[in-house]
Amino acid sequence: MSKKNEIIVIGDYTATQLEKLSEEFQTIFVNKTDDLRSLSAASRKNIKGVAFKGHRPLEFDAASFDLLPELRIISNFGVGYDGIDIQEASRRGIKITNTPDVLNDDVADVAIGMLIALSRNFLNGVDWIKSGAWGKSGEMPLNRTVSGKKAGIVGLGRIGCAIAHRLSGFKMNIHYYSRSEKSSVKDWKFHSDPISLAEEVDFLFIALVGGQETSQFVSKEVIQALGADGILINISRGSTVDEEALLDALETKHIRGAALDVFTGEPSINPRFLELDNVFMQPHQGSGTIETREAMAKLQRANLSRFFANESLITPIN
Ligand code: 8YV
Hints:
Elements: E1 6-10, H1 15-24, E2 26-30, H2 41-44, E3 49-52, H3 62-66, E4 73-76, H4 86-91, E5 95-97, H5 104-119, H6 122-130, H7 133-137, E6 150-154, H8 158-168, E7 173-177, E8 189-191, H9 194-200, E9 203-206, H10 220-226, E10 231-234, H11 243-251, E11 257-260, E12 279-281, H12 290-308
Parallel strand pairs: 1-2, 1-3, 3-4, 4-5, 6-7, 6-9, 7-8, 9-10, 10-11, 11-12
The structure holds 2-keto-D-gluconic acid.
């Protein structure tokens, strides 16, 4: 058997994912890019490929690249690659790949599930049973309808589209903001400005790519425009929303609620979120199913194999 290609694996992977990487490649594992420093210069100097998993903004930066002078490819586990300094990587001729498409359905499911859980107060429903309130006090307090309302999507990429298609099944009119109008979706109303979109809709789904370009794109003005009956749902990155403005709006009931899978600085989230009862939160688990994570891991490995075989990459982003 030919000698396996050597890679460094960075991030928090499951035992199965690590095993599969090791079957195909000769692997060195570290938890985060900072840990590259703990590897000897001799073990770093010939490394051409990295399997990376992480979404701390720009974690994989010039200083990390300096530690891997022969690096040619970073195969990212995730559709979002805001953990990597792409401009610097491109400047150095380092190729980046990601794992798009395979996670669209799971992430969209979480967006819809969180909206319904918040609007129908599922958490209170569970408590109502467990606390015995059902028997003592009768029916739980009434909640608010989801179907038939107006939905807005900020960022109509692959995941935004998967969300919109699901919402059509809930008899909702779809409005969207994106950089340009999409000719392929004639039934959905384009807004050239996110404030006019927020003014128009009941539910605002954030499905932007992360990174500096979209930092706090969902501004205080957008959040305010959503109004007292509005709900904001974010499955993209915490960085896309002005979180302080969102917290202010939630605390003062300027908007009805928020359903959030992502946070600035996660997993250490702003403690103000913990005090709120108009927020439904999940710990960034949009793509977190066995099926989808397996598909993401397979695509990550396939991109590395193609690179070492001198074949074209499957999902390059630069
Ligand atoms: C993460 C994600 O990759 O794909 C993305 O951009 O944010 C997620 O799927 C996943 O949580 C692993 O960290």
